[in-house]
Amino acid sequence: MSLGGIENLDYTVILCTKLAETRAFYRDVMRFPIEVDLENWVSFRVGSTLLTLRPRGPWSVCDDGLLPSGTAAMQLAFRVPLAAVDQCHEELVTQGVAILKGPTNLPKWRHRALFFRDPEGNIIEIYAQF
Fold it and tell me: So what's the pLDDT on residue 62?
């Protein structure tokens, strides 16, 4: 099989400098169920994919290097039904999450979306297609 034949993204790993805080965010705010919970590795089930957290730094296969302060390493986008975008916004505000951009229509993309950050500074998008 060639690289072009890859059909699945099984898990995404977020490299963390604030592992405990980020773990609590995805468990308590996002309410993702924990599938694996080890001292230096926690995986959350999100549909058919795992969202995994581990400490940033030297690892058994490489050294992650530094991430400049204030820099997002990634943007994660989670699709929900259209009515859920506003409901998710209300829940996030109630939980004290700082919102980067509240629910807004993005006609070019045919999305209704909201944006905020996780404790690591990554941009999180909750969106629906319309």
Answer: 85
Distance, CA of 4 to CA of 22 (rounded, Å) = 33
Where is 14: in which H helix or E strand?
strand 11-16
- On average, the pLDDT of the chain sits at 94
Q: Is the dihedral of CA 89, 72, 35, 25 positive or negative?
A: negative
79-102: pLDDT as tens digits = 999 999 999 999 999 999 999 999
Nearest Cα to Cα of residue 51 among 80, 17, 27, 79 = 27
Bridge-based pairing state of the strands 123-129 and 111-117:
antiparallel
Q: Say which residues have a Cβ less than 8 Å from residue 122's Cβ, sequence separation at least 6.
A: 14, 72, 73, 74, 75, 76
H or E element in which residue 100 lies? strand 99-106
**Residue 63 · residue 15 · CB < 8 Å:** no
Transcribe 41-55 into DSSP letters. Answer: EEEEEETTEEEEEEE
The pTM of this model reads 0.90
